[in-house]
Amino acid sequence: MSFSSDEVNFLVYRYLQESGFVHSAFVFGAESLIAQSNINGALVPPCALTSIIQKGLMYVEAEISTGEDGVERLIDTLSLIDAVMPDVVQSRRPGAGDGTKGPPVKEEGGEGNTGSTPAEPMDINYEHGVEIPVEKARVLKGHDSEVFICAWNPKQDLLASGSGDSTARIWNMTLPEPTCEVLKHCIKMEGKDVPSNKDVTSLDWNCHGNLLATGSYDGFARIWTTAGVLEGTLGQHKGPIFALKWNKNGKYILSAGVDRTTIIWDASNGKCKQQFAFHSAPALDVDWKSEESFASCSTDMQIHVCQLGSNQPIKSFQGHTNEVNAIKWDPQGKFLASCSDDMSLKIWTMDRDTCVHDLQAHQKEIYTIKWSPTGPGTNNPNAPLVLASASFDSTVRLWDVENGVCTHTLTRHKEPVYSVAFSPDGKYLASGSFDKCVHIWSTQSGQLVHSYLGTGGIFEVCWNSRGDKVGASASDGTVFVLDLRK
Fold first, then answer.
1. Domain 134-483 adopts which CATH fold?
2. Residues 252-283: pLDDT tens digits?
3. Of 277, 288, 333, 457, which has the most beta carbons under 10 Å away?
4. pTM of the predicted model, to two decimals?
């Protein structure tokens, strides 16, 4: 059995993706020409690199512990460092050496320990009724690779999911036994449809709930019916699409790509209405302000507000000192929130050039942000407008944006938090982390209300329109639905 350098590159590429280093994965994939290798990504299981290294360690351990005379000797569990420093291992064998001490080996659990310690038990300290019982969780299996995204249909309990296996799926949760439509993302080669072997990176339902748009690393956006029929293929980006959104009335789709551009598409005919090339590096996120204006952000640290028909941004915001990961307009389109690898969260308005608030409390990169569906002009006009931020520092923060203060810091997660989502009434917030936990919090008190421990790191959480189910997608290929009805 041997490895080609292509295969090693693919494993590293996949590891970077699974760890959430999306941009590093893209750069590494481009430089190592992953796209030109003929490896079928759908056949590579999640966590393959870690698994192979672990098995390699076990082999090296067996090799070292069996002497040349074939007799097994006891040695401590190997770490990766030990495997590449066999002299250290020799010194740890019982009776090794000539009575002089070998290099010191730290005690298990000590600072700088390289031994493989058992996983920490989950320190959740469930209060009464907090842990969601197994019978209230429906695990949906079918994807062959990590599931990066999921989204509920706004009109019925259909959950869409998008994966590294180059498919999206529509799970029908209205039936006693869920059914599933598989949306295969194919490209034309020599007149035939072949799987693109590229990740589905983004998806969004239109307001009527009859069409789903998906964006892929293969550079195409696609429109599908709820039955999984491909209605249209939108091809003008040169390279992966990182984000895409329908506008409110469902007439246009907006996409952001690695080619530094954003595009408004006419959903009725799949044609490009306008392509905006104002960023100097990959565009990472987009969000509609109105039916014909939107904001975009990029690794170039810039934010631009653009208008259909205008050949220049109608507003640009500078101030972040690292790439801007996500942007969101509040429900009224008054405030634009942005979050960045510079660990700050900034609030902007169209009538000011500098930010209204520069919110600095997180200790690591902020991956995503969401506004509560509350405040003036919403169904919950009396509830205050709240912003939630999710960070790689393992915390979620809730912000009172009018006053620019953090009202709650939610600290139960143990790993980076990738996703947050407000319930439709704004009373609850779901958060999903790479610690495999989905937590559901009261936005008023900041208390933990429900918890569920899945089987893979959580990339995305989302609420259905009635607010009684939470969907989540995970790094081990599972999608699950938590039923919160009493």
1. Methylamine Dehydrogenase; Chain H (2.130.10)
2. 999 999 999 999 999 999 999 999 999 999 99
3. 457
4. 0.76
